[in-house]
Every structure is written in structure tokens, then in C-alpha cells.
Write a structure and sequence with these properties.
single chain, 196 residues, mainly alpha, 7 helices
């Protein structure tokens, strides 16, 4: 008597339990599949050609495409570094010459504009940032700004010594200081901020 009753009770408990376990198993599998598809889409998006890749497909530029692909990061850094240089020099000239701000104060104003421009372009095009969470983003921007503050201090020292103390031409000193800063910023961005 005990055996058929026990079998009946076990079967009546096992069937709903088996159904529940079966549904959970496939729910977990479905969740993993959704995550796999999500990450595949992100990978595909990263593999898509950006505007510079598409420009290099122009018939006239196609001959340079192998060199571009091999050296894309440094070429884009030089391009956007050049644009950042222009932003920095133009805004410095505006603040220092047009408005008449002190060289050190004008440099800080131009630094703010140049850093904002550089962060956006470096993040999107040059180093192809992988920061996907808020914590990653905060770490990335903090280290970027920290590195730029370090080079700002170096640049301010150069300006202080050569403009304030030695009375050299403000724009000439700013240009030389910018070249030094661009090289240092690349090293900091490559090795610390956007390391892969």
C-alpha cells in the first residue's frame, strides 16, 4: 500500500517540479542567448567602418588604405591632435591678445576648450573607447582629465618661465609648449586612459 501511494505522491509532486525546472532551464538559456546576441551586435557595430574608413575608400585615396589601416590610431591622433592644437592656439590668441587676459589665465581658458574637444574626438575616433558602464566612463574621463591636468601644469611652467620671466613672444612659446603637450598627451592617453 505504501509503495503505490508514495509513487502517486512523488509523481504528483515531480511533474510540477519538473515543469518548473524545465521552464527555468530554458529561461536561463534564453537569457544567455539574448546577451550573446547583444554582444554580437556591439562587436558588429565596432567593426563597422567609421567616417574615416569610408573616406579612405574614395578611389583617389584607396592607394593609401593599407598604410592607413596599419597606422590608423596614430594618424587619427595626429589629425585630431592638429585640430586640438588649432582650438588651443586660436582660443589662447583670442583670450590673450583680443581680450587681454594674462598668458597663464588665457592658457587655462584655452586648455578647457581643447580638453573638451580632445576627449570627445579621442574617445570616439582615435582610441575607440570600450567604456560601456557608468563606472568605466567615470574612470576613463577622470584619468583623461587627470593626465591633461598634469600636462597643463607642465605647459603653465613653460609659459611662466619663458613668457612671464624671460619676456619671450607669447604665441611662439605657446606653439612650442603645445607640441610638447601633444606628445605627452598621446603617451598618457595610449598607456593609461584608453589602454586596451
Amino acid at each position: 500500500i505504501g509503495s503505490p501511494l508514495l509513487s502517486f505522491l512523488l509523481c504528483s509532486l515531480c511533474t510540477p517540479l519538473q515543469t518548473l525546472l524545465y521552464e527555468q532551464k530554458y529561461s536561463i538559456i534564453a537569457r544567455f542567448e539574448e546577451e550573446r546576441i547583444f554582444y554580437e551586435r556591439i562587436t558588429e557595430m565596432k567593426k563597422e567602418k567609421d567616417i574615416f574608413d569610408r573616406i579612405m575608400e574614395f578611389p583617389v585615396l584607396r592607394i593609401f588604405n593599407p598604410f592607413y589601416k596599419k597606422n590608423k590610431e596614430i594618424l587619427l591622433y595626429l589629425f585630431f591632435g592638429g585640430l586640438t592644437f588649432i582650438v588651443s592656439i586660436a582660443s589662447y590668441a583670442f583670450f590673450n591678445i583680443q581680450i587681454g587676459w594674462n598668458a597663464l589665465v588665457a592658457n587655462i581658458g584655452s586648455w578647457i576648450l581643447a580638453v573638451a574637444f580632445a576627449y570627445i574626438t579621442n574617445r570616439i575616433w582615435v582610441f575607440d573607447s570600450n567604456a560601456s558602464t557608468a563606472a568605466d566612463f567615470i574612470k576613463e574621463i577622470t584619468s583623461f582629465i587627470g593626465g591633461r591636468v598634469a600636462t597643463l601644469v607642465i605647459e603653465e611652467l613653460i609659459l611662466f618661465i619663458f613668457i612671464t620671466n624671460l619676456g619671450m613672444n607669447s604665441m611662439a612659446v605657446k606653439v612650442v609648449a603645445q607640441v610638447i603637450v601633444i606628445v605627452l598627451n598621446y603617451v598618457i592617453s595610449k598607456l593609461i586612459v584608453f589602454k586596451k
